Amino acid sequence: MSKIHELSSVLADQIAAGEVIERPASVVKELVENALDAHATQIDVMVAEAGIQSIRVIDDGDGIADDDVLIAFKRHATSKITSRADLFRVQSLGFRGEALPSIASVADVVLNTSNGTTGTSIHYRGGKLLKQAPAPLRKGTDISVTDLFFNTPARLKYLKSAQTELANILDIVNRLALSYPGVAFRLVHNHKELLKTAGRGDLQQVIAGIYGVQNARKMVAITGESADYQVTGYVALPELTRASRQYISLLINGRFIKNQQLTKAVIKGYGSKLMVGRYPIAVVAIHMDPLLVDVNVHPTKQEVRLSKEPELAKLISTTITERLANVNLIPSALTNLGSHRRERLNTDQLAMDLNAASVQHQPLSTDPTVTKATPASMATPVTAGKPDSTAKPTTKPATHLADQQPSTAPTEPIMIAARNELKTPMIAEFDAKYQHEVSALPFGKPAAKPTRVAIQAEPAAAPAESAERFPTLRYLGQMHGTYLLAEADDGMYILDQHAAQERINYEYYRQAIGEVSADQQNLLVPIVLDYPTSDVLKIKEQLPLLAELGLHLEPFGGNSFIVHAHPTWFKAGQEEDTIKEMIDWVLNDDKLTVAQFREKTAIMMSCKRAIKANHHLDDQQARALLKKLPTCENPFNCPHGRPVTVHFTNSDMEKMFKRIQDSHTAQSHN
Predict the structure, then answer these.
(1) What's the mean pLDDT in 135-146?
(2) Cα 431 from chain centre
(3) Per-residue pLDDT tens for 299-339?
(4) What is the pLDDT of residues 531-555, one digit of tens each?
(5) Please, which residues have CB within 8 angstroms of residue 601's CB and are 6 or more apart in sequence?
(6) What is the dihedral of CA 411, 412, 418, 421, to 10 degrees?
(7) Which residues contact residue 50 at a Cβ distance below 8 angstroms, ignoring those fewer than 6 apart?
(8) Contacts of 96 by beta carbon, 8 Å cutoff, 6+ apart
(9) Distance from the Cα of residue 516 to its chain's centroid
(10) How many whole angstroms separate alpha carbon 465 and alpha carbon 445?
(11) Which residue from 186, 299, 328, 399 could staple onto 19, CB 3.0 to 4.6 Å apart?
């Protein structure tokens, strides 16, 4: 008897199902993608017990012709491609033809479909056809999947908790809704509605339905274009972050994909505006020639291979950087405290107006057990009047980044000594350079107030010069030797003095380190550094990189290096620690680029030379700090992403003191 034999079709389908159908969410993904490929404009997804008990997907798409239904359940059967050339121009979500047979091989599947001319009902269980009959002529497809993995119990064993599996389903539907804002989606779990979109084509309204209206207000539209790619979407302001990259959605030609390099490009676009360990919410839609992307490299088709990936990554990061360049990024103090947003009365009224304008999404199913339950939190979808293609950000994206940013002329770090050293030449020189009499300080006009359009993020102001995006502040006083209090015409500002000086110093050192000169400070006593052999080999490979930053290490026999001089921007007394830290970066990351090295070094030096908390400043020093801060390229965050200042609007102050409740009373008290 031959040892080699051909697998049965049922067993082959079950093996294929192991690649395509990993969990209930995989079933939902494949069925919804089929509905989208069938040009559905409304898709209802009903699941029970996180999809393990049942999954039902109803759409109003093209449906399947009577003579094609049986073929659709055969392996490698598809209507999406016909020749080898089609593989290089895939524009549909599904094309392999394995989804339906794979699902039918491990579950009980009942499909009712009609193309408007013929209607067919078909029943499969464990890969075997049980029944075929005519069906009503309601155009579209209604498919139910029950008893998932009934014949592959090992697969059930590896499923997570019901909450985790449901979260995976919700994540899949959310991503598809973001990819297709023109399609109305509805997700119901155990008769409870979890998601509902209106299908008006407005991406920001879909974002509002998924992440909430208040979060959608903190997102701004982006648009960028190159010869090969077009990038659109929405990104969150730096104040709106999450603890993981999970909330960054990348969409290529309507397909949600996972790509580490493009995700890094989104984060890179924020520069130092994000706090360490925090990540933005972003929806980035990329449109490109299908020839530049290969979607046939992974069974689930979520990982793709891109041509010219570095160019695309650069376009994404540059687009985000330019979009945030002239936006007022000072967060509301009340928002940072997790309290009510400023101007809440107007916000609530706007939400009511949006709800009143919403389009009622009628479920495709007439099953009363499906439609009867609608939780209050999701009862009315948030919709807007215009599709995403016509929604315009209030700040026009700049064509050239250099046109938006402040002058790149090198700044100088602020050095503030202890109170008993205030008369040192260093402080006197600084004061002479940057300080003026209080009466001569320019109390210019305040930053322009944001304009609201639909649910556009509030801080997004109209295009303005960089100096106008940061208000002119009048110093009031210092609190606990840590915070500076200041005022402007639009309210009160509280600044973190350490974060402010750290930002000023960072921009100085970033410039100084980038222009390494021959200026070196000789050491009276050379520094000798010892490392194990494994580290010595790595360090020797990176000696040219260290030299580009002005740090010259000379082999000193055995496993030692000697340093005779260091760049003049090293802080006195911390030379050895700084050198060791720079070498540690090389040891921890052998792919560190010169640009990354300079960035890390600038951050380190700016922190080491910044004033700390509980350090009291005199009025002259504080005013000098406030005068220098607006000249920074980014005066809103320290290099680690922490906010430099928070803002209490005049309205916030009036609310806190209950003056806004009765305008007549407030006026009588003025």
Answers:
(1) 93
(2) 41
(3) 555 667 788 889 999 999 999 999 998 787 777 776 666 53
(4) 888 888 888 888 888 888 788 899 9
(5) 509, 513, 549, 582
(6) -130
(7) 24, 162, 163, 165, 166, 169, 189
(8) 76, 78, 296
(9) 34
(10) 13
(11) 299
Identify whether the C-beta of residue 592 lies closer than 8 Å to the C-beta of residue 545. yes
Angle (CA) 213 216 218, round 5° = 120
> Amino acid identity, residue 499?
A
In what order do the strands lie in the sheet containing 184-189? 128-134, 119-125, 108-114, 140-146, 54-59, 42-48, 184-189, 192-196
Report pLDDT for 134.
Answer: 92
Going along the chain from its start, the domains and CATH numbers come out as 9-196 (3.30.565.10), 520-567+572-608 (3.30.1370.100)
End-to-end CA separation in angstroms for the chain: 102
- The CA–CA distances, whole Å, from 511 to 408, 504, 601, 606 equal 8, 11, 11, 12
Inter-residue contact 478 to 416 (CB < 8 Å): no
3-state secondary structure of 365: coil
Q: What does the pLDDT look like over 75-121, one tens digit per residue?
A: 766 655 555 554 555 555 654 557 888 899 899 999 999 998 999 99
Q: Give the separation between CA 636 and CA 237, rounded to whole angstroms.
A: 12
Residue found under tokens 């055969």: 74
> How far is residue 350's CA from residue 412's CA, in Å, rounded to a whole number?
45
State the amino acid at position 599 in one-letter form. Answer: E
Q: Which of 250, 243, 245, 257 is CA-nearest to residue 222?
A: 250
